[in-house]
Automatic annotation (TrEMBL):
<feature type="transmembrane region" description="Helical">
    <location>
        <begin position="52"/>
        <end position="76"/>
    </location>
</feature>
<feature type="transmembrane region" description="Helical">
    <location>
        <begin position="115"/>
        <end position="137"/>
    </location>
</feature>
<keyword id="KW-0597">Phosphoprotein</keyword>
<keyword id="KW-0808">Transferase</keyword>
<feature type="transmembrane region" description="Helical">
    <location>
        <begin position="88"/>
        <end position="109"/>
    </location>
</feature>
<dbReference type="GO" id="GO:0016301">
    <property type="term" value="F:kinase activity"/>
</dbReference>
<keyword id="KW-0418">Kinase</keyword>
<keyword id="KW-0902">Two-component regulatory system</keyword>
<protein>
    <recommendedName>
        <fullName>histidine kinase</fullName>
        <ecNumber>2.7.13.3</ecNumber>
    </recommendedName>
</protein>
<dbReference type="Pfam" id="PF07730">
    <property type="entry name" value="HisKA_3"/>
</dbReference>
<dbReference type="InterPro" id="IPR011712">
    <property type="entry name" value="Sig_transdc_His_kin_sub3_dim/P"/>
</dbReference>
<feature type="transmembrane region" description="Helical">
    <location>
        <begin position="458"/>
        <end position="485"/>
    </location>
</feature>
<feature type="domain" description="Signal transduction histidine kinase subgroup 3 dimerisation and phosphoacceptor">
    <location>
        <begin position="173"/>
        <end position="237"/>
    </location>
</feature>
<keyword id="KW-0547">Nucleotide-binding</keyword>
<dbReference type="InterPro" id="IPR036890">
    <property type="entry name" value="HATPase_C_sf"/>
</dbReference>
<keyword id="KW-0812">Transmembrane</keyword>
<dbReference type="InterPro" id="IPR050482">
    <property type="entry name" value="Sensor_HK_TwoCompSys"/>
</dbReference>
Amino acid sequence: MWPPRRIAGEVLLSLTMGLMAAGIEGLDDSSGTVRTVAVALAAVLLPPLRRALPATVLLVTAVASAGLDGLAPLLLVAGWSAGRRIAAVGRATCTFVLAYVLNIGLAQVWELPHFSPGILIMSALATLVAVIVPGLAGRYWSQRRTLADTLREYHAHLQREREMIAVQARIRERQRIAQDMHDSLGHQLALISVHTGALEVDRELTGRQREAVGVLREASVAAMHELREVVGLLRDGTEAPGQGLPPVAAGGAPTPALAALGEEEAKAPSRGVAGIDGLMEASRGAGAAVRLRRSGEVRPLAPTADHAAYRLVQEGLTNAHKHAPGAPITIELRYEPDSLVVEVTNGPAPEGGARNVVSGGQGLTGLGERTRLVGGMVHAGPTADGGFRLAGVLPYTSPEGAPGPAPGGTATTFVDGAGDFRQQLPAGSPGDADPVNDWNGMPKELAKAMSRNRPGRGIAVGCGVAALVALLLVIVAVLGLVVAAGEADKAMIEPKLYDTVTVGQPESEVRKKLPDGASFLTEGLEKGAPPVPKGAKCLSLNSTEFGSSLDKSPVYRFCFRDGKLIEKESFEIKD
C-alpha cells in the first residue's frame, strides 16, 4: 500500500501529464475532441503503471508519442522511471534501444509524405534527449542510492559485530578476574579460616580471646561465601554484587556492630529487600538503635534492583557504625507509584563517639554505579541536624537497554549497545585499525563498488553526466539550427523574389527560381488559403517576412497549368 505522500504525488503527476497532453493536442487543428480526450486519458493512466511495468510503459509511450504529440512529455517521465527500475543492464539496454528505434522509425512513417534527412536528424536528437538522457540520469541516481543503502546496512552490520566483540571481550575479562580472585583470595581466606579454627580450640586462650578468634573465623567464612558468590556471578556474566568482605574499622579490628553485620551477611538466605530486616536485627543485637519504617503498597523489584536496595541499606548501616557509632539510625522504605525510595539516616555522633577511620569512598561510588545500571540514582549528604543521609531511588522494572537479566533469564553484560563504535577507534590507516573495520573484510562487490565510488569520484561522475547532458543539448541546438536553415531554404522565399515572377511565364522557368517546397515547414499552408484554380497544381511557400500579427504568417502561392504560371497569390494564414 502506497503512503499518502506517494499517492498525492502520483495523482499530481498524472493530472499534470493529462493536462499537458490535452493542451498539446488541442493546439493541433486536425485533432478532434475524441482524440484529445483519449490522449489525455492515456497520459493520466500510464504514469502510475511505470512503477510496476517500467519497460512496458516506456515502449508503449515511445510508440504512441511517435504519432501523438500530446504524449511527448510523458517520454521524459517514462525514461527516468525505466532507468531507475530496470535492474539488469542487458534488459535496460535492449529496452532503451528498442524504444529509441521504434520512436524514430514510427515518426518517419508518420511523416512519410514529407520525409527529409533534416526531419530524421531532428527526430533522432529529440528522442535522444527525451528518452536516453533521462534514462541515464535515472540509472545513475538509482545506483548511487543503492550504494548508499548498502553502505548503511554494512555500517549497521559493523556496529552489531563490534558490539558482539565487546561483549566477548568483557566476558573473557570477567572470567579472568574471577579466576584470579579464586586463585589468590580464595587461597588466603582458606588459610585464615583454617588457622583461626585451630586457634579457637586452643586451651590456653581466655574466654574473650576465644570469642575474638571466633569472630575472625566467622568473618573469614563469610568472606569465602561472598567470594564464591562473586566468582560465580562473574563467570556467568551477570552483575557482581559488590564488596564481599565484612566491613572492618580502622586497624583491622571489627567493632561488635560491624562484626554482627558480617555474620548476618554470611547467614542471610536473601540479599534483597527481604534481607533488610535481618540487617536491622543484627545492628540492634550489636547495641545500635535502629528502626525501620515502611510506607506504600509493597511491589516486587527486578533482581538487580532488589539486590541494590539491600546493598544500599547495608552501606548506610556500615557508614553509620563507622563514622557515628552510637547514633540512632532510621531505615525507610517508601513504595512510590514508579519506584522504591530507600533511605538510611543517622543522627550526629555522640560526644566522644566519633573516630577517625580509613575510608576511600569506594562503597558510595559502587552504589552509584550499581543504581545507575538499573535505571536509578543515589544521593548522599549531611542532614540539617549534623547527621548523614544515604538515599536511593530504584525503579520497579529495569529500563530498556539497561544491563540486567534478559528475557528468559539469560544474563547480559554491561555493554552499551547504543554507543557508536567509531568513537572508540583510534585514527590511522585502515590496515592499522581493528580487523573488523578493515575495508579488506568487506564483501567483494561492496569493496569494488567503494573503490570506484569515492565521494570525489561520485562528484566527478555527476559533473560528467551533467556536462554530457549540456553537451548533448548544445549539439541538439546547433544541429537544430543547421537543419532549420536547410529546411528554410526549401520552404521560404523573399518578397523581392515573389515580385520578379510574373503570370504567364513557363513553369520550368519559374520553378528554377523557386525552392521545391519539400519540407515540413510547408505543412498546413493550404489551410485558410484562397480556392485553387480548376485543374491547376500549386506550390505554397513561406515568406521570410513577419505577418501582420503574431498569430499570422505570410504565404506565397504559385499555381501552374498547361506548363505555365496561371496565378500567384500572397495571403496570410493563422498559425
